[in-house]
Every structure is written in C-alpha cells, then in structure tokens.
Amino acid sequence: MVGISLAIYGVLHDIVCRIHCVFAACGFVQRRLVPTRTKMTKATDCLNCSEPVEKKFCPNCGQKTDTHRITIKHFIAHDLLHGVWHVEKGLFFTLKEAIVRPGKAALWYIEGKRIKYYNVFYLALLLLALNAILMHWSHDAAGVIQTKEKYGINELIASYSKFFLFSIVPLLALNALSVFRRWKLNLAEHFIVAGMALLGILLMTACYFVFNILSEVTDWNIFGFLTMVCFFSVPLVPIWTYSNAFWSKYTIGGLIWRILVFYLLIFIEMTIILGAIVLLLSRNGQDANFVI
C-alpha cells in the first residue's frame, strides 16, 4: 500500500509540475527561480549616507568608498595621524610652503586650490604653543638667574605674546588692502596672505629657540650663527611673503616703495599698540619701566 501511494504521489506531482510549466510559459503565473550562490560584489551605495557612488568618494558626504576593516596599521597611520594632525591634508606641506613660497601659496589657496593645505590659523595656534615650550626650554638651557625686572619683562612678553602675534594679522591685512590694490583682493582674502606671513614668523621664531638651545648645550659655533640668522629673519618674513605674492603686478621700484610704506605703517601701528599696553599696565599699578 505504501508503495502504491508513493507511486500515485509521484505521478500527481509530475502532472502538477507540467501544468505549472505550461501556465508559466503562457504568462499566467511567474516562474519560480531557484536561488543560486553568487560572488560578493562591492557595495554601490555609500555606507555613511546611502548615496549611490561610482568613484572613490561619495559625492554627497565625501566619505571614501574604500572602508576596509580597521587594523593596527590603519589605526596608527590614519586615525591617529590623520585625525589629530591631518597629515594627509597637508600640515607639513603647508609649513614648507610658508617658507618656500608663502605668497604664491596664499594666492593659490584663495583661488580655490585648498585640498593640499592645512588650516593656516589652526597651524598658527600649534606653532604658538610650540614656541611657548621652546622659550621655556631656552631659558632653562641658558641657566641665567633673572633679576626681578627681567623676570617682569619675560612675564609681560609671555602674557601678551598671543595678542602681539595675532594683532599682526589684521594689521598686515588692513595695510596690504590699502597698499597692494592691483590684485583686488578683499579683506578676508588679505587675512589669508597675512596668516601665511604669520606662519613664517612663528617658524623662524621656533628655529631661533631651537638653535639657541643647541648653542647653549653644545660648543658648536654654527648654532650661535644660525640663532642670529633666525633672529634677523623674523622681521623680513612679511617682505618675502608679499613680494612673493605681488611681484608680478608691479615693477621692482613700485614693489619696493609699497613695501617701505607697508612697513612704515606697521611700525607706527605697533608702536601705538605697545604704548597703549604700557600705559594701561602703569595705570593698573604694574611695573612698566623696561627697556626694549
């Protein structure tokens, strides 16, 4: 009986399958597809915002399409270095440009070529912190016992160093706006050029402290010479920055007299600012009797 039942079931199942195939061929029912194993393909949607992507970066959010598994190598090389220092966005490249061709780099940044550059003012803050540390080490390396007056001067410089340095940027920008007019840059764009000049000043200052420390802890005269070179290079940084930026728009004579006027304005304004600070400190009862 069991054998007869299985035979009848087989015949009926075969008839039903044939009828289903005929109906599917006529379009009355959908053909049932048997799932097959396929190879894993690369995702075509952004894993961050689900935007369809075809290239290396998402056009909507900018995330890379290559989001491979995180490893120790990837964590150190990308998450730490890129996340903290943004090396891939040009920290060291920006430092190099601030020395080699600061004016042209600033103009390229203004024109929109910005992917290679680190934020100028964030980098200035990092260099300012570095200079504060190097200045402290320089004093320790010198081992000089400071008098009360000299200690007060150093405290004054340390307290107002940020103000002095970052007041340079608006002064440079405002004066350049009135002196270098042929490029027709607006005030915000002149701030970028001035920020690049500030980077050069901070770099030269950092080099000054480094060579000063080395000259104190070693007997090599070359470090003392390099210390003096860096010291006298600091006030020349804006000359290099603005001449590198604007030389193509002016004759040599026209560029020289504009830079002279530019420096004269800076000198007058910084003298007024310094005098105002001294007057303010003297009114507050602090000792402002020092010699520059």
Helix content: 55-70%
Low-confidence stretches: 1-9, 27-42, 147-151, 286-292
What is the assembly state of the chains in this entry?
single chain
Q: Strand share of the residues?
A: under 5%
Rg, nearest Å: 34 Å
Distance between the termini: 119 Å
- Mean pLDDT rating: 75
Give the H and E element order: HHHHHHHHHH
Annotation field: number of helices: 10
Number of beta strands? 0
The computed structural class is mainly alpha
The domain count comes to 2
Overall form: globular
How would a textbook summarize the main sheet? none
Question: What does this protein look like?
Answer:
The protein folds into 2 domains: 45-85, no CATH class; 90-283, no CATH class. The chain has helices spanning 2-26, 72-85, 91-100, 102-111, 120-142, 148-179, 187-217, 221-233, 237-246, 252-283. Residues 1-9, 27-42, 147-151 and 286-292 have low confidence and may be disordered. The chain is an all-alpha fold.
Précis, in short:
The protein has 292 residues and is mostly helical. It is 68% helix and 0% strand.
Walk me through the topology:
Blueprint lengths: L1 H25 L45 H14 L5 H10 L1 H10 L8 H23 L5 H32 L7 H31 L3 H13 L3 H10 L5 H32 L9
Helix pairs in contact: 4-7, 4-9, 5-7, 6-7, 6-10, 7-8, 7-9
Protein traits:
about 0% strand; about 290 residues; disordered N terminus; disordered C terminus; mainly alpha; single chain; 2 domains
